Amino acid sequence: MKVMLREDSSGKLTVYVPKKDLEEEVVKQVDSETGKIFTLANGWELEFSNLPQPLKLPQTYEARRLA
């Protein structure tokens, strides 16, 4: 799914999912074998592969929701 990563006014990383009209703060970031896993404040886990370092924000990236 396509999601937008950006920083809010306090500098925290947030994720916006347009199809769900959902915006949540990233509360945890973990490196995995295939990329990065972001845990959102609502409990969702999104996996990102091929994220550039450093992140260019705001930007739309492809993510996969983990069960």
UniProtKB/TrEMBL annotation:
Record-linked Gene3D superfamilies: NifT/FixU-like
InterPro entries in alphabetical order: NifT, NifT/FixU_barrel-like_dom_sf
Example of a GO biological process term: nitrogen fixation
Name of the protein: Putative nitrogen fixation protein NifT
Organism: Brunnivagina elsteri CCALA 953
Gene behind the chain: nifT
